[in-house]
Amino acid sequence: MNSQQPLSFEFFPTKTVEGAEKLALVRDNLSVLDPLYFSVTYGAGGSTQEGTINTVNSIKQAGYSAAPHLSCIGSTREGIKEILNTFQNMGINRIVALRGDLPSGHRDVGEFRYANELVEFIRSETGEHFHIEVAAYPEVHPQAKNAQSDLNSFINKMNAGANSAISQYFFNIDAYLYFVDSCTKAGMDKPIVPGIMPITNYSRLAGFSDMCGAEIPRWLAKRLEGYGDDIESIKALGLDVISKLCEQLLAAGAPGLHFYTLNQSKTTLEICNNLGLSSK
Ligand code: FAD
Questions:
Q1: Residue 1: how many CA atoms within 13 Å on its side-chain side?
Q2: 34, exposed or middle or buried, with CB in 10 Å at 0-12, 13-18, 19+?
Q3: CA-based angle 152:155:161, to the nearest 5?
Q4: Residue 233 to residue 205: CA distance in whole angstroms
Q5: Ligand 1 centre from 215 Cα, in Å?
Q6: What is the rounded average pLDDT of the residues 170-192?
Q7: What's the pTM value of the predicted model, to 2 decimals?
């Protein structure tokens, strides 16, 4: 097993002191895997700005690398400039740059339409200070006109100054491999790290997958659904399926693994253990 590839772990910002204390434990549990960084999501329109900054701060203070996400929809150039300044002053040098989605009821898209414009803006304001990650969609972004236009937009976004990408999660490895292959054929060979979603709860996963356009293969959906409230069986199958997916991805040359931890450490640790990824 290739244990040289970097791992990264994604969190969402907590809202309470208890939540922050719990997340600090989760972070410390995962730190034994020596991740390249912990990333923290950012609500569209800056809705979680304070929570993102606080969570990133606590990760930094504990001595780990932190990468805030930054979404641009609904924002002004001045607002983005300010937050970039804040991140620079905090000693942050990696950002996950996104368009985000306007919350329902909001109509003002602000001064950025797509993530490539945010990437260009970050580069024009801060030069090479930040390592910029962007989002990739091996199964096609749900709002894309078609697969080819989505691929073209992705390559355009990478060429705007991104260093690497993190993919939406997927359960079908071919979707990822074909996507990487199409990028390589189009001359874009920057790293595309697969996003990994551990499976612990079927109904939540099904709802979320519907929304973000990640397909749960029929055989897997049927099996998970068939377990009903039997959480232990769902977790056991999920652990097996995701461990195998990660193993195949690393064997196929994936440049790392990015885990959507949902602020939990147990399943991610179990998957990494199955992969033989060693603790520090
Ligand atoms: P874009 O790259 O701008 O693409 C959005 C859509 O527009 C696509 O359909 C694309 O094909 C199309 N498009 C792009 N450029 C053009 C163009 N020039 N002309 C026409 N069409 C174009 N959301 C958050 O709110 N906060 C987060 O912290 C967050 N973290 C994420 C992390 C990862 C790893 C991923 C995969 C997603 C994350 N998201 C987050 C969700 C993301 O914001 C949504 O998927 C959003 O709908 C698209 O963001 P994007 O940056 O991929 O957009």
A1: 17
A2: middle
A3: 145
A4: 15
A5: 17
A6: 98
A7: 0.97
